[in-house]
Design goal:
four-stranded antiparallel sheet; alpha/beta; 2 domains; five-stranded parallel sheet; 29% helix; Rossmann fold
Length: 195
């Protein structure tokens, strides 16, 4: 038995029927969505970029402002600006916009997560060292109930023992480690299928 949810939107004189049957894992609806213009003519639905799928918060924690110069043998030479450009390109390719935030202060990261409630459809978070210490970030992610993906540039499981535990992983939809800065793109691509 499948649950069907349908929402009807009217934008600029064009009605859209949005929604799909909830299907078992691995099953996707076949065929494109349709829209009806004011004259009642059925046409293809707008692309994700045209329709706008929402905003993804890309959140970077302490020391990630030093990317490109901080231990390049571990983190590579890409800067935070490069990461943000990569995230913007991946988001645009999937019909999203991004809001990029970096802070070395836990409270700022908490405020950004709280601010995402009602404004963002997904979160990509590299909390840096706070991953291993912050119950507050874990609780904030759980509270806002927005799909989140935890990202780490390095493979934290090949590093110091204290980096092997994450307070965030249990409340995130997915975890990507060790893929370098491409992990941000992978996270956004994942969210594109999850939201």
């Amino acid at each position: 038995m499948f649950l069907t949810l349908r929402v009807f939107l009217t934008l600029f004189g064009v009605s859209y029927a949005v929604g799909a049957a909830a299907q078992p894992d691995g099953v996707r609806n076949a065929g494109p969505a349709r829209r009806t213009d004011r004259l009642g003519v059925m046409t293809e639905a707008p692309t994700a970029t045209e329709a706008g799928r929402g905003t993804i918060l890309v959140l970077n924690g302490p020391n990630l402002n030093l990317l490109g110069t901080r231990e390049p043998e571990k983190y590579g030479t890409s800067t935070l600006a490069d990461v943000e450009q990569l995230a913007m390109a991946a988001a645009e390719a999937n019909g999203f916009t991004v809001d990029c935030v970096q802070s070395n202060h836990e409270g700022d990261l908490l405020d950004a997560i709280h601010g995402a409630r009602g404004t963002c459809v997904g979160i990509v978070i590299n909390a840096g060292a706070y991953t291993h210490t912050s119950v507050a970030l874990r609780d904030a992610l759980a509270a806002v109930q927005i799909p989140a993906v935890e990202v780490h540039i390095t493979n934290v499981h090949q590093r110091e023992e204290f980096r092997h535990h994450s307070y965030l992983s249990p409340v995130c939809s997915a975890v990507i480690v060790g893929a370098g800065v491409q992990g941000y793109k992978l996270a956004i691509d994942y969210l594109a299928t999850a939201v």
